[in-house]
Amino acid sequence: MSNHPLNLALRFVLEIAALVAMGYWGWVGHEGASRYLWAIGLPLVAAAIWGTFRVPGDPGNAPVPVPKPARLLLEALFFGGAVWCLFAAGRPLLSAAFGAVVLFHYALSYDRVLKFIGR
Fold it and tell me: CA geometry: angle at 55 spanning 53 and 60, to 5°?
């Protein structure tokens, strides 16, 4: 189910939404010039890390191959960080809704999760 086109589209939307959430936190959580650095820099760094550390054989190129459990941990940190960013930016309901959709996506991707944890 993890490679179903609708689930892959959901994953793409979640990835973009996570980057937007990080940028939103950077904007509302800071003042002055640092606001721009956080709002632009945090999503850029997160996107670079997201695209660099990949599992060989997963869709896409793997510039820096990592073990499957490490990639799953990276994904948890990425999406969990976005949930935290929304909460810290004063949007607790949006944070909870985003977290629920992320959990729904991973429930749909149970086959990928099981493969990544070695079962």
Answer: 85
Query: 118: phi > 0 → left, psi -120 to 50 → alpha, else beta; which?
Result: left
**Closest by Cα among 45, 115, 54, 30 to 81:** 45
3 state DSSP class of 22: helix
| CB 86 within 8 Å of CB 101 | no
Confidence (pLDDT) at 74: 96
Amino acid making up residue 50? W
Assessment of whether the complete model's pTM goes beyond 0.85? yes
